[in-house]
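User: My advisor asked me to double-check a structure prediction for Acetyl esterase/lipase before group meeting. I don't want to rely on an old file, so could you generate it fresh from this sequence?
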Amino acid sequence: MVLNMYKNTMKLFWKSCLYIIAIYTLSSCISDKDENPTENLAALDLFDQSYGAEQNQIFDIYLPAGRSIAKTPLLIYIHGGAWVEGSKEEFNQFRQALSREFTEYAFASINYRLYNFSQGNNKFPAQEDDVLEALSYFQSKASEWNISDKLILAGASAGGHLALLHAYKHPTVGNVRAVIAFFPPTNLAELYDFSFFTQTGLSGMLGGNPKDKPEAFAASSPITFINSKSVPTIFFHGTSDIIVPISQSQLLKKALIDAGVKYEFTEVPNQGHGFTLDTYPSLFQQAAKFVKEQM
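Assistant: Sure, here is a fresh prediction for Acetyl esterase/lipase from the sequence you gave:
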């Protein structure tokens, strides 16, 4: 009798142990799944988010489905508009074409403070400072968004200028791996005398002409900061550009060659300041191939 009671007690004991182990194992599996939900992440578009306290310091971000810290870099697009107009919505006309070439990427498009001619507000380096603040913010949010800290900067015209300026001048802010620029200003002292428009705009934003303010013009020119460690750069310029002359990109090409920086430069025949929409897809394809080599 005592022996049978002992056997029954031991059976109950081991059944209880097995039950506890099964529950623990199941809960552990559920917990692990919850902590690593990458495969289940849905695409997420966020609009008019703030990266700073100023009204114009806002951005849109497009996070792809299934994103992860390991495989989802961020391409940041900076709009053009001669530093006086334009908005982050410029990116919308390129989003579909860029998404086809830059698969598995997240995209962000930023606004920045615009120079006001009539009031003289937001002179340089306000725009440069905004890009700095935006990239610092993106860097701080990468884990929360579940994306990589690897960045690609891209922009057109004034946006191309700001992308290049940040990449060369502030290489420690943001893990920038490459820059893509379309018809960018690169040497503002050389650009100053190109037209009445460039003279008026640059003298207002920089507080004078290149002779009066050489330091300001140099500090706001991307080519000033190119060195052997500058990031790989791909850029495009139309041969018929009458707003920012192609000589600005030719000066950039020479500076990159002299410093030994990897680059690709394409002169786009018969295109002006802003290419036709059917021109961009092949250029985006070229840019994606170049960027892939740098990642």
